[in-house]
Specification:
mainly beta
């Protein structure tokens, strides 16, 4: 069973930056998609960003577009989410996922807390 190793996150002030990383236990291939959702208390899970491993095409939610950047490091088999200009509205548990062969695997999530 595939597992995801997540890192990054923490507590910052508004305007600060953080970087999340996600490394799947299985090798990412061209058809693999890696991304993040987030969920704040009392709110539904929200898509944040994803990247297609083969073409490096990316997709972002409108709420993070222009502030967050998702990239891939093929040598490290790791996806990174650089989060800039954070606001309190970005406070949530960020869950990494890997999609491949019709299956989605979720990480346990990492907490991001932004104070004003």
């Amino acid at each position: 069973q595939e597992q995801l190793v997540e890192s990054g996150g923490g507590s910052v002030q508004a305007g600060d930056s953080l970087r999340l990383s996600c490394t799947p236990s299985g090798r990412a291939y061209s058809s693999t998609t890696i991304g993040w959702y987030r969920q704040a208390p009392g709110r539904e899970r929200e898509f944040v960003a994803c990247i297609n491993w083969g073409y490096a095409t990316t997709n972002y939610s409108d709420s993070v577009k222009g502030r967050f950047t998702i990239t891939k490091d093929s040598d490290k088999n790791t996806a990174n989410l650089q989060m800039n200009s954070l606001t309190p509205e970005d406070t949530a548990n960020y869950l990494c996922y890997v999609g491949r062969a019709g299956r989605t695997t979720w990480g346990q999530g990492t907490q991001v807390t932004v104070s004003s």
